[in-house]
Amino acid sequence: MSTHLLRQFPTLKALGAVSRELRFPWSYLSTLAVTEPSSPAVKTAIPGPKSSTMKRDLNLIQNTDVVHFFVDYDRSMGNYIVDVDGNVLLDLFTQIASIPLGYNHPRIMKVLTDPVNLAAFANRPALGMYPPSEFAQILSETLLSVAPRGINQVQTMACGACSVEHALKGAFMAYRRRERGGSPPTQEEIETSLLNTPPGCPKLSVLSFKNAFHGRTMGALALSHTKWVHKLDFPSPCWPFATFPTLKYPLEEFADENNAEDARCLAEVQDKIASAKRAGQPVACVATEPMQCEGGDRYGSPNFFQGLQDICQENSIALLLDEVQTGAGASGKFWLHEHFYLRDPPNLVTFAKKMLTGGFYYTPDMRPTEGGRIFNTWTGDPSKVIMLKAVLDVIKEERLLDRTADTGIYMIEILMAAQNKYPNLLSNSRGLGSLAAVDLPDGESRDKIVGKLRSKGINVGVCGSRTMRLRSTLTLERKHIDIFADRLHAALKEM
């Protein structure tokens, strides 16, 4: 599979001409570099003195325990992030997997300087009541143009967690409509809903999975089971959760064991659904990530997800696939669940991060029948959808799905080579497209290698209890992976 070169970034002269022609006082455009840096360059410890001072100042206002370093976003470019101390890092974490094309991409900057888009950026509408005139067209040209196969309904939201929250509402409403046989709610249901009691607020549940992460709002948090810091002290409904498969790698060497693991986990799902029904808290929705990201980059097989869909359909339960981190081409296909070859579309697919806007796709049976059931003040932001149009255009024009699939294969080759050389340190190299990971023996050694990589100009993430997580842009090239490989081997030698 061939790689495709990035288009040449516009020159500073061209950017200046755009600014003058549009008469925008955006002098920061002139600070953009012509191209991204050629390699990392580390001048200070990270965080450096300026970052440390800024962190101290910010800590007077809010807790900053998880701040890594402060960023100079004017100077960050492409696949490189620049901190306020002038350190240049190859960014393989990309704002928690949320940047599709890299920093300050010229096509995004062009959207920001186009006078046609001024009103969209100046006025954030309450989309549920006062959408802009062209909103249906914008959604058709963007979100619906990349909708999962067989789905033609979409609802925008602001972030991943609220996308999950409202998608769950869709599943609950559909379940209760079916129970009512399509009849309107009774007066008793209407009145008791305001009292947080049945039958208006029914005892329904959502089945999730151990090591899942779906967000930090209350409903999404009830589906999340990764870290105590996410959940401690917060009340939560007692909803069931099952075991997500733990696959052994290399997959081709452990096919029988992994098939048995799939069967065991699917049997547990069936048992949990039956138990919830007996307890008077039937499962209305099964929610899962196509790959558990925060939980440790844990993949499920096509066999597992096909079986999961079968179970949901047999029990009239909605299947929600949370593609907040895995969508928008991150896996080399636009949606990771495309790798599963499901017979039917999932009932609900949530998105955010690289999609720039939050939201969810849904099948017609999940569509609310009354206005205001899926609603908040903004229900998204049309300016983000306008930016998404530019992203989708670049993905198509530069065949970035093909590139991402190719660089993903190369990244795994690099990780496997390092794993073979340092088998006492690395294991379970795995990934699809821009989603890659490798395990260390424990959390301490994982954090140590991440710190060493950062000091050598490579920014990576962590997940699970001992996993190093890589999340690149869709514009990553093999040359970037070669730089990562050199710094990785240097860091491993020091372990």
From TrEMBL:
Cofactor dependency: pyridoxal 5'-phosphate
Keywords: Aminotransferase, Pyridoxal phosphate, Transferase
GO cellular component, one term: mitochondrion
Reactions catalysed, as given in the entry: 4-aminobutanoate + 2-oxoglutarate = succinate semialdehyde + L-glutamate
GO biological processes: gamma-aminobutyric acid catabolic process
InterPro entries: Aminotrans_3, PyrdxlP-dep_Trfase, PyrdxlP-dep_Trfase_major, PyrdxlP-dep_Trfase_small
A molecular-function term among this protein's GO annotations: pyridoxal phosphate binding
Pfam families: Aminotran_3
Family: Belongs to the class-III pyridoxal-phosphate-dependent aminotransferase family.
Record-given protein name: Gamma-amino-N-butyrate transaminase
Species annotation: Elysia crispata
